[in-house]
């Protein structure tokens, strides 16, 4: 199972499952069924409507005009829905930048333009082979655009980030926590979680003493209570800056 580690703005790596051939084909087929239904409906409307009851060339012109949304469906859907078509939404998969930075319209444009190589030439063999042979399961369009397709089924728990669940009426205790960086807080939270899990009271005390020394804090709070307060205070101040 391929994995992609995306680094967030808070210096936290989130692992996502890379999507291979099977789910991408299913999403493609779902989109194909939607487009087929749209084209059949438009064609029937043009055929039966008295508005288009003129010469055949005019009818063909109107029909071609109404078919344009279908032609640009994939490109527009990815841009509007942030890396997803309806098929991808149903399968909970998404196109993202390989380096974790925000995906831009031109990334989707490159992917869309290279569909002619990946999908429409040689019965999709180029796209299929590139996905199967690529370490990151990228088709030619993905490789050129710097994108990958990932699963968004997994919900990342707040515990996997530096965020803390604080109430709206939370009152901070130590305003000097703003001297810490996101990286500092991530290290504190990871060490705190491991120490609590292993009932490592020595590490908890060392961690508390280190924080107190760095921030020049004197407190009578117990180790766990103090560290928990530091984490919540940091989140309070960074969320309200």
Structural class, from helix and strand content? mainly alpha
Number of helical segments?
11
Q: Helices and strands, in N-to-C order? A: EEHHHHEHHHHEHHH
Tell the overall outline: elongated
What's the Cα radius of gyration?
Answer: 26 Å
For the biggest sheet, the summary is:
2 strands, antiparallel
Provide the descriptors you would attach to this structure in a database record.
241 residues; mainly alpha; two-stranded antiparallel sheet; two-stranded antiparallel ribbon; 11 helices; 4 strands; elongated
Report on the structure:
The protein is mainly alpha-helical. It has 2 domains: 3-151, no CATH class; 158-239, no CATH class. 56% of the residues lie in helices and 8% in strands. The protein has helices spanning 21-48, 56-71, 73-80, 86-91, 105-113, 115-120, 125-133, 140-145, 182-197, 201-215, 223-239; strands at 3-7, 13-17, 93-97, 147-151. Strands 1-2 form a two-stranded antiparallel sheet. Strands 3-4 form a two-stranded antiparallel ribbon. A hairpin with a 5-residue loop joins strand 1 and strand 2. Helix 1 (21-48) runs antiparallel to helix 2 (56-71), helix 9 runs antiparallel to helix 10 and helix 9 packs antiparallel against helix 11. The radius of gyration is 26 Å and the shape is elongated. It starts with a strand and ends with a helix. The model is unreliable at 8-13 and 156-160 (pLDDT under 50).
